[in-house]
Write a structure and sequence with these properties.
Layout lengths: L7 E10 L5 E6 L3 E7 L3 E10 L7 E8 L2 E8 L12 E10 L2 E9 L4 E17 L2 E18 L2 E7 L2 E6 L4 E15 L4 E14 L4 E5 L6 E5 L4 E5 L6 E7 L4 E3 L5 E6 L2 E6 L4 E7 L4 E4 L1
Parallel strand pairs: 2-6, 2-8, 3-7, 3-9, 8-9, 9-10, 10-11, 10-12, 11-13, 12-13, 13-14, 14-15, 14-16, 15-17, 16-22, 17-23, 18-22, 19-23
Antiparallel strand pairs: 1-4, 4-7, 5-6, 18-21, 20-21
Length: about 290
Amino acid sequence: MLGFKKTEEIYREKIVEGSEVNALAIDTSSTEVILSPHASEDIKIELKGEVSPKLKDSIRMDVTQQGHALNVQVKIERDSGFSFGIEMIKLALSVQVPGKLYEEITVETSSGGVEASDLEGKKVKFTASSGEVDAARIKAHTEFKSKTNSGGIHLNRIEAPVIYAKANSGTVLLQNLTAADVHAKASSGNVIGKKWTGNITAESNSGGIDLHSAELTGNIEAEASSGDVMLYFDKKPQSFSLDFSGSSGEAHLELDGFQYEKKKDHRIKGKMGEGKHTIRVKTSSGDFDFRT
Protein backbone atom coordinates (compact mmCIF):
# COMPACT_ATOMS: atom_id res chain seq x y z
CA MET A 1 0.00 0.00 0.00
CA LEU A 2 1.30 3.41 -0.88
CA GLY A 3 1.65 5.90 1.98
CA PHE A 4 0.43 9.46 1.73
CA LYS A 5 1.96 12.36 3.59
CA LYS A 6 -0.55 13.89 5.97
CA THR A 7 1.19 17.28 6.06
CA GLU A 8 3.90 19.22 4.28
CA GLU A 9 6.39 21.46 6.07
CA ILE A 10 6.42 25.15 5.22
CA TYR A 11 9.39 27.45 5.69
CA ARG A 12 9.82 30.89 4.17
CA GLU A 13 12.31 33.54 5.27
CA LYS A 14 12.87 37.15 4.33
CA ILE A 15 15.44 39.63 5.64
CA VAL A 16 14.74 43.35 5.20
CA GLU A 17 17.08 46.22 5.99
CA GLY A 18 15.29 47.94 8.86
CA SER A 19 16.99 51.29 9.41
CA GLU A 20 14.55 53.15 7.11
CA VAL A 21 11.41 51.34 8.29
CA ASN A 22 9.30 53.24 10.83
CA ALA A 23 5.88 51.65 10.32
CA LEU A 24 4.81 47.99 10.40
CA ALA A 25 1.63 46.46 8.97
CA ILE A 26 1.09 42.70 9.26
CA ASP A 27 -1.99 41.03 7.77
CA THR A 28 -2.37 37.24 7.84
CA SER A 29 -4.85 34.45 7.24
CA SER A 30 -4.86 31.23 9.31
CA THR A 31 -1.54 32.14 10.91
CA GLU A 32 -0.30 32.85 14.42
CA VAL A 33 1.74 36.06 14.57
CA ILE A 34 4.68 36.58 16.94
CA LEU A 35 6.12 40.10 16.94
CA SER A 36 9.19 40.96 19.02
CA PRO A 37 12.42 43.00 18.93
CA HIS A 38 15.96 41.73 18.46
CA ALA A 39 19.45 43.21 18.50
CA SER A 40 19.92 43.33 14.71
CA GLU A 41 19.23 46.39 12.55
CA ASP A 42 17.52 44.11 10.05
CA ILE A 43 13.94 42.86 10.11
CA LYS A 44 13.73 39.08 10.07
CA ILE A 45 10.49 37.49 8.85
CA GLU A 46 9.94 33.74 9.15
CA LEU A 47 6.90 31.71 8.18
CA LYS A 48 7.00 28.10 9.30
CA GLY A 49 4.70 25.24 10.13
CA GLU A 50 2.82 22.52 8.30
CA VAL A 51 -0.19 22.30 6.02
CA SER A 52 -2.10 19.71 4.04
CA PRO A 53 -0.13 18.69 0.92
CA LYS A 54 -2.77 20.16 -1.40
CA LEU A 55 -2.26 23.59 0.21
CA LYS A 56 1.53 23.74 0.09
CA ASP A 57 1.68 25.66 -3.18
CA SER A 58 -1.18 27.94 -2.11
CA ILE A 59 0.71 29.60 0.76
CA ARG A 60 2.00 33.05 -0.11
CA MET A 61 4.13 35.36 2.00
CA ASP A 62 4.41 38.82 0.48
CA VAL A 63 6.77 41.43 1.92
CA THR A 64 6.61 44.89 0.39
CA GLN A 65 7.91 48.30 1.35
CA GLN A 66 6.23 51.60 0.54
CA GLY A 67 8.37 54.48 1.64
CA HIS A 68 9.11 53.92 5.31
CA ALA A 69 6.25 51.44 5.80
CA LEU A 70 6.81 47.67 5.70
CA ASN A 71 3.85 45.45 4.80
CA VAL A 72 3.82 41.72 5.50
CA GLN A 73 0.99 39.54 4.21
CA VAL A 74 0.37 35.81 4.48
CA LYS A 75 -2.39 34.45 2.26
CA ILE A 76 -3.81 31.07 1.29
CA GLU A 77 -4.81 31.23 -2.36
CA ARG A 78 -7.33 28.45 -2.88
CA ASP A 79 -8.70 27.46 -6.26
CA SER A 80 -12.26 28.52 -6.87
CA GLY A 81 -14.89 25.82 -6.48
CA PHE A 82 -15.44 23.15 -3.85
CA SER A 83 -12.68 21.72 -1.67
CA PHE A 84 -13.07 18.17 -0.42
CA GLY A 85 -11.46 16.56 2.61
CA ILE A 86 -9.98 17.92 5.81
CA GLU A 87 -7.53 20.80 5.55
CA MET A 88 -4.67 21.02 8.03
CA ILE A 89 -3.12 24.45 8.59
CA LYS A 90 -0.65 25.11 11.39
CA LEU A 91 1.42 28.17 10.60
CA ALA A 92 3.33 30.74 12.65
CA LEU A 93 4.72 34.03 11.37
CA SER A 94 7.63 35.40 13.38
CA VAL A 95 8.60 39.02 12.79
CA GLN A 96 11.68 40.31 14.63
CA VAL A 97 12.33 44.02 14.38
CA PRO A 98 14.95 46.50 15.62
CA GLY A 99 14.08 47.88 19.02
CA LYS A 100 13.11 51.51 18.33
CA LEU A 101 10.14 53.87 18.18
CA TYR A 102 7.76 53.19 15.27
CA GLU A 103 5.16 55.58 13.90
CA GLU A 104 2.57 52.80 13.74
CA ILE A 105 2.41 49.08 14.48
CA THR A 106 -0.60 47.17 13.15
CA VAL A 107 -1.23 43.42 13.24
CA GLU A 108 -4.41 41.79 11.94
CA THR A 109 -5.15 38.06 11.67
CA SER A 110 -8.30 36.52 10.22
CA SER A 111 -7.73 33.16 11.92
CA GLY A 112 -4.92 33.02 14.44
CA GLY A 113 -3.63 34.73 17.54
CA VAL A 114 -1.30 37.68 18.07
CA GLU A 115 1.62 37.58 20.50
CA ALA A 116 3.63 40.78 20.85
CA SER A 117 6.14 42.05 23.40
CA ASP A 118 8.71 44.76 24.15
CA LEU A 119 7.67 47.22 21.46
CA GLU A 120 7.27 50.99 21.21
CA GLY A 121 5.10 52.87 18.74
CA LYS A 122 3.07 56.05 18.49
CA LYS A 123 0.02 53.98 17.54
CA VAL A 124 -0.31 50.26 18.25
CA LYS A 125 -3.22 48.07 17.14
CA PHE A 126 -3.72 44.30 17.34
CA THR A 127 -6.79 42.53 15.90
CA ALA A 128 -7.55 38.80 15.87
CA SER A 129 -10.79 37.64 14.27
CA SER A 130 -10.47 34.10 15.61
CA GLY A 131 -7.68 33.87 18.16
CA GLU A 132 -6.24 35.54 21.23
CA VAL A 133 -4.26 38.74 21.66
CA ASP A 134 -1.40 38.49 24.16
CA ALA A 135 0.64 41.69 24.52
CA ALA A 136 3.26 42.58 27.12
CA ARG A 137 5.66 45.44 27.85
CA ILE A 138 4.49 47.75 25.09
CA LYS A 139 4.54 51.54 25.06
CA ALA A 140 2.22 53.48 22.75
CA HIS A 141 2.60 57.26 22.65
CA THR A 142 -0.96 58.08 21.54
CA GLU A 143 -3.17 54.97 21.79
CA PHE A 144 -3.12 51.20 22.15
CA LYS A 145 -5.97 49.14 20.67
CA SER A 146 -6.71 45.42 20.88
CA LYS A 147 -9.73 43.53 19.59
CA THR A 148 -10.83 39.92 19.16
CA ASN A 149 -14.01 38.45 17.72
CA SER A 150 -13.53 34.97 19.16
CA GLY A 151 -10.75 34.80 21.73
CA GLY A 152 -9.46 36.41 24.88
CA ILE A 153 -7.23 39.44 25.39
CA HIS A 154 -4.33 39.52 27.85
CA LEU A 155 -2.52 42.81 28.33
CA ASN A 156 0.40 43.11 30.75
CA ARG A 157 2.55 46.19 31.35
CA ILE A 158 1.05 48.34 28.63
CA GLU A 159 1.70 52.09 28.78
CA ALA A 160 -0.34 54.53 26.68
CA PRO A 161 -2.53 57.62 27.11
CA VAL A 162 -5.54 55.53 26.05
CA ILE A 163 -5.85 51.73 26.09
CA TYR A 164 -8.70 49.85 24.39
CA ALA A 165 -9.46 46.15 24.81
CA LYS A 166 -12.57 44.60 23.27
CA ALA A 167 -13.36 40.87 23.10
CA ASN A 168 -16.63 39.81 21.50
CA SER A 169 -16.30 36.27 22.85
CA GLY A 170 -13.59 35.82 25.46
CA THR A 171 -12.15 37.14 28.71
CA VAL A 172 -10.28 40.44 28.93
CA LEU A 173 -7.39 40.26 31.42
CA LEU A 174 -5.60 43.53 32.21
CA GLN A 175 -2.46 43.65 34.37
CA ASN A 176 -0.15 46.50 35.33
CA LEU A 177 -1.52 49.12 32.96
CA THR A 178 -0.44 52.75 32.95
CA ALA A 179 -2.85 55.08 31.16
CA ALA A 180 -5.02 58.14 31.47
CA ASP A 181 -8.02 56.10 30.28
CA VAL A 182 -8.60 52.35 29.96
CA HIS A 183 -11.63 51.00 28.07
CA ALA A 184 -12.37 47.27 28.39
CA LYS A 185 -15.36 45.38 27.02
CA ALA A 186 -16.24 41.69 26.88
CA SER A 187 -19.46 40.89 25.05
CA SER A 188 -19.39 37.28 26.25
CA GLY A 189 -16.77 36.86 28.97
CA ASN A 190 -15.27 38.42 32.08
CA VAL A 191 -13.31 41.63 32.48
CA ILE A 192 -10.50 41.23 35.00
CA GLY A 193 -8.23 44.11 36.00
CA LYS A 194 -5.18 43.66 38.21
CA LYS A 195 -3.27 46.85 38.96
CA TRP A 196 -3.77 49.90 36.78
CA THR A 197 -3.48 53.67 37.01
CA GLY A 198 -5.93 56.18 35.58
CA ASN A 199 -9.61 56.04 34.71
CA ILE A 200 -11.14 52.70 33.75
CA THR A 201 -14.38 51.82 31.97
CA ALA A 202 -15.35 48.14 32.08
CA GLU A 203 -18.36 46.52 30.44
CA SER A 204 -19.50 42.90 30.21
CA ASN A 205 -22.71 41.76 28.55
CA SER A 206 -22.45 38.17 29.73
CA GLY A 207 -19.87 37.82 32.50
CA GLY A 208 -18.51 39.45 35.61
CA ILE A 209 -16.18 42.38 36.26
CA ASP A 210 -13.36 41.97 38.80
CA LEU A 211 -11.12 45.00 39.36
CA HIS A 212 -8.30 44.85 41.90
CA SER A 213 -5.60 47.48 42.27
CA ALA A 214 -3.24 48.86 44.87
CA GLU A 215 -5.14 52.14 45.15
CA LEU A 216 -7.81 54.23 43.46
CA THR A 217 -6.12 56.61 40.99
CA GLY A 218 -9.00 57.63 38.73
CA ASN A 219 -12.67 57.30 37.90
CA ILE A 220 -14.37 53.92 37.44
CA GLU A 221 -17.40 53.01 35.34
CA ALA A 222 -18.44 49.35 35.46
CA GLU A 223 -21.53 47.77 33.92
CA ALA A 224 -22.38 44.06 33.91
CA SER A 225 -25.58 42.89 32.24
CA SER A 226 -25.30 39.34 33.57
CA GLY A 227 -22.66 39.01 36.28
CA ASP A 228 -21.22 40.48 39.46
CA VAL A 229 -19.01 43.54 39.82
CA MET A 230 -16.16 43.36 42.34
CA LEU A 231 -13.91 46.28 43.32
CA TYR A 232 -10.98 45.66 45.64
CA PHE A 233 -8.17 48.01 46.68
CA ASP A 234 -5.15 47.23 48.85
CA LYS A 235 -5.18 50.80 50.18
CA LYS A 236 -8.53 52.15 51.32
CA PRO A 237 -9.69 54.99 49.02
CA GLN A 238 -10.18 58.24 50.94
CA SER A 239 -11.96 60.49 48.44
CA PHE A 240 -14.58 59.32 45.95
CA SER A 241 -18.28 59.40 45.14
CA LEU A 242 -20.20 56.19 44.51
CA ASP A 243 -23.36 55.58 42.52
CA PHE A 244 -24.64 51.99 42.25
CA SER A 245 -27.86 50.73 40.70
CA GLY A 246 -28.90 47.13 40.19
CA SER A 247 -32.04 45.61 38.69
CA SER A 248 -31.95 42.49 40.84
CA GLY A 249 -28.51 42.64 42.45
CA GLU A 250 -27.44 43.83 45.87
CA ALA A 251 -24.52 45.92 47.08
CA HIS A 252 -22.03 44.81 49.73
CA LEU A 253 -19.73 47.57 50.99
CA GLU A 254 -16.95 47.36 53.55
CA LEU A 255 -16.26 51.09 53.93
CA ASP A 256 -16.04 52.71 57.33
CA GLY A 257 -16.74 56.44 57.10
CA PHE A 258 -18.78 56.27 53.90
CA GLN A 259 -21.53 58.92 53.84
CA TYR A 260 -24.76 57.53 52.39
CA GLU A 261 -27.21 59.68 50.43
CA LYS A 262 -29.25 56.64 49.38
CA LYS A 263 -29.05 53.11 50.76
CA LYS A 264 -31.35 50.39 49.44
CA ASP A 265 -30.92 46.78 48.34
CA HIS A 266 -30.56 47.77 44.69
CA ARG A 267 -29.41 51.38 45.02
CA ILE A 268 -26.43 52.98 46.76
CA LYS A 269 -25.33 56.58 46.48
CA GLY A 270 -22.90 58.55 48.61
CA LYS A 271 -19.30 59.58 49.01
CA MET A 272 -16.12 59.21 50.97
CA GLY A 273 -14.24 62.37 51.88
CA GLU A 274 -14.42 65.13 49.29
CA GLY A 275 -15.45 62.81 46.45
CA LYS A 276 -12.37 63.37 44.28
CA HIS A 277 -12.94 60.34 42.04
CA THR A 278 -16.22 59.04 40.64
CA ILE A 279 -17.30 55.40 40.77
CA ARG A 280 -20.42 54.35 38.83
CA VAL A 281 -21.57 50.72 38.88
CA LYS A 282 -24.58 49.18 37.18
CA THR A 283 -25.72 45.56 37.23
CA SER A 284 -28.78 43.84 35.79
CA SER A 285 -28.68 40.45 37.48
CA GLY A 286 -25.56 40.51 39.62
CA ASP A 287 -24.25 41.81 42.92
CA PHE A 288 -21.76 44.58 43.65
CA ASP A 289 -18.92 44.11 46.16
CA PHE A 290 -16.57 46.91 47.26
CA ARG A 291 -13.76 45.87 49.58
CA THR A 292 -10.44 47.12 50.84
